[in-house]
Design a protein that fits this description.
With 436 residues, the protein is mainly alpha-helical. The protein has a single domain, classed as Up-down Bundle (Growth Hormone, Chain: A). Helix content is 76%, strand content 0%. Helix 5 runs antiparallel to helix 13, helix 6 runs antiparallel to helix 9 and helix 6 packs antiparallel against helix 11. The chain starts with 11 loop residues before the first helix and ends with a helix. Keywords: Membrane, Transmembrane, Transmembrane helix. InterPro entries: MFS, MFS_trans_sf, Sugar_transport-like. This is MFS transporter.
Length: 436
């Protein structure tokens, strides 16, 4: 599975009627039946996320391949990821005040629009794109920072403890559908065109899909603004041993270690092994078909009382499926790795996301500081991604031997085990509470 992954000028005059009345500061209330159903706003947010995911699935994987074909340099792709991570982190922190005290929906829209701008720049640069890695990483980092900060805040406000796992499961399900079909279409279009014409086509389509996603955000209600932004809010309690955010922050750093490398290395390894964009599309088709089923099952059955041992099984198997790469990095072993990852990653990602947002919703003070805690989570994740990517650059600059790469993938790919170890007491407590 291609890891995906994992937070102004007013537009109210033109579209204010669509944003009008539904304003809330707290998470959505539990529905009367207690079934954890998703309301219209949650479904619309899933639609925005689906378009954003589709556009990224169409071109996101192939941007790195495009740059690789221009200049065969692992380290260059690593630096592209580093610039993106640092810019995204800074955007999260600085934009927190805007999202907290201003119109978070505009932040969401601008994040989507800047994603379209990113692909517009790639189209304009053409084969010169490899010489403008810093610019590309900067624009994509701002886009990701604005989109995910606003998205996560709205996601928290729209969902609650009863339907959060369902929302995450549906989001994963839609992401799997996009990951299954869209990269295959991209691979087909690229291989059917001569030269770089196929890349220009899919980048253009992505630009259009991002614009459609931005338009869909106007159907989401405006969220109420309350409280002031605390620049150090998410970090105040991490020095205290009994503060839950201390452990959660360390767990998010550990989670980022894997994401920093696997976010771009898996597809690149498939291309380096096969020299075929169509093979990347097929790889995504097979692995995402498995993820489609696994996210569906996890979304339905992975309740809080099962998270403890479910997540343990997931993290162990994620690490185990890296081992086939030591037999040789080929399309076959990569497919074994990808399918295994697709089968078990929902057991890892759904609890790791839900436990953070459940903690935010645990008391009134946390709810009031939800933006600060969401920013704290993302900064911790990006710290882990940064550490992982810098380590990758340091290693790859010395040796690109398959054994060296495999050892590095196993070391950082096993970081989910550390995430489980850090969260195991919290997971165990939730299990006992749910069963009592």
């Amino acid at each position: 599975m291609l890891d995906h992954t994992k937070a102004r000028p007013s537009l109210r005059e033109g579209f204010g009627a669509r944003e009008r009345d539904a304003v809330q500061t707290r998470p959505a209330k539990k529905d009367k039946g207690g079934s954890g159903k998703l309301d219209r706003q949650a479904l619309l947010l899933l639609g925005v996320n689906a378009l954003f995911t589709c556009a990224n699935a169409l071109s996101g994987t192939f941007v790195n391949i495009y740059i690789w074909k221009i200049k065969n340099d692992y380290a260059l792709l690593g630096w592209f990821a580093v610039v993106h991570q640092l810019t995204m982190s800074l955007t999260f922190w600085l934009a927190g005040k805007w999202v907290k005290e201003g119109n978070k929906m505009n932040a969401l829209r601008i994040g989507v629009l800047l994603a379209a701008v990113f692909y517009g720049i790639v189209l304009l640069l053409g084969t010169r794109a490899a010489s403008y890695i810093a610019l590309l990483g900067f624009v994509q980092g701002i886009s990701s920072g604005l989109f995910w900060l606003a998205f996560n805040v709205v996601y928290f406000e729209i969902t609650n403890r009863d339907n959060r796992d369902r929302f995450n499961g549906v989001a994963g399900l839609l992401g799997s559908v996009a990951g299954m079909v869209v990269p295959w279409i991209s691979g087909y279009l690229i291989t059917r065109q001569s030269g770089n014409a196929g890349y220009r086509l899919i980048f253009s389509i992505s630009l259009a899909v991002f614009l459609a996603g931005a338009l869909l955000t106007f159907l989401l209600h405006k969220r109420q603004v309350d409280n002031s932004y605390d620049w150090r809010g998410g970090f105040r309690g991490i020095r205290k041993r009994d503060n839950p955010w201390r452990i959660i922050g360390l767990a998010m750093v550990a989670q980022g270690l894997r994401e920093g490398i696997f976010g771009f290395m898996v597809a690149l390894l498939v291309y380096v092994s096969t020299r075929s964009e169509m093979k990347i599309g097929n790889f995504s088709l097979y692995t995402s078909a498995v993820a489609l089923a696994s996210f569906y099952l996890a979304g339905r059955f992975l309740k809080p009382r099962y998270r403890h041992w479910g997540m343990f099984a997931g993290v162990v198997m994620l690490s185990a499926f890296i081992l086939p790469l030591f037999w040789g990095v080929s399309y076959g072993t990569l497919l074994i790795f990808g399918i295994g990852t697709a089968m078990f990653i929902p057991l890892y990602t759904i609890p790791s996301v839900s436990i953070v947002f459940d903690q935010i919703g645990s008391n009134e003070e946390s709810v009031r500081r939800r933006e600060e805690y969401i920013i704290f989570r993302e900064l911790a994740l990006n710290a882990g991604r940064f550490i992982g990517t810098i380590a990758f650059i340091a290693v790859i600059s010395r040796s690109t031997a398959p054994t060296v790469i495999n050892v590095m993938l196993l070391a950082f790919g096993s970081s989910p085990i550390l995430v489980w170890l850090l969260l195991r007491r919290r997971l165990a407590t939730e299990m006992r509470t749910a069963r009592s």
